[in-house]
Amino acid sequence: MTTTRYFRDFPARSGDRMLLKMEHYLEVYDELLSDWQGRDVSFLEIGVYKGGSLPMWQGFLGAGSRLVFLDIDPACRDLALPGTVVEIGDQADPVFLERIARDHGPFDLIVDDGGHKMHQQITSFRHLWPRLRDCGLYIVEDVHTSYWPGFGGGFREPASFIEFAKDLIDRMHSWYTEDDAGFPLHPLAREIGSIRFHDSLVVFEKRLKEPPVSIAAQDGKVTRSRKILEVRGRRSIF
Ligand SMILES: C[S@@+](CC[C@H](N)C(=O)[O-])C[C@H]1O[C@@H](n2cnc3c(N)ncnc32)[C@H](O)[C@@H]1O
Questions:
Q1: For ligand 1, which residues put their CB under 6 angstroms from it?
Q2: What is the pLDDT of residues 132-173, one digit of tens each?
């Protein structure tokens, strides 16, 4: 994988619009998104503020990309650049999100850099994840607010986004337990390819998949099996 310095170098090239990101996200994005540079994709960012991220994403993604930004602040409407759309509404409003998805989805890349409150991050994820394409990424920034009571968080607070994301780790692995009643197979096991936790940043990768197989390979002969899913007599998988 080739790693560029596009994101790390961007702040020094920024114009008169303020960009507001934690610095280490830029290094993560250079690594995580290197294969996305110049690709024509459908992109959504929640949170515009002073509009500094619009030229960053526009300069990185392909010229044929569809770039949509949303913010609750009507003043952000004026920050749209040619070739981008800024929609005004509340990221915690399912009706608004439904309209955004209908008008602009499905998306390849979604970045939540909005209000960072628990119900906002969780509602947006619940309503937009189904509108993310296979192999797409859903990135949630500033998840340290999960530890801030003022944002609805707190250490091990069950309603926090971090706890919600930890629960999705369990859902991703729900192929593998024997507890059909208490921990049944969840549909997200077929959809989540990976969940990466960085400092303050969670990245969910969508991978539509069949129940996993294990392989035994010897002398070039490969045998595939789902025994690992069957050993505990689970009924809910097949
Ligand atoms: C951290 S700033 C966005 C920074 C911008 N993405 C950047 O990289 O420079 C957060 C933005 O989220 C917006 N916001 C707050 N609550 C929101 C909500 N419920 N729905 C949509 N946007 C919201 C704020 O108005 C603010 O402009």
A1: 19-21, 45-49, 52-53, 70-73, 90-92, 113-115, 120
A2: 999 999 999 999 999 999 999 999 999 999 999 999 999 999
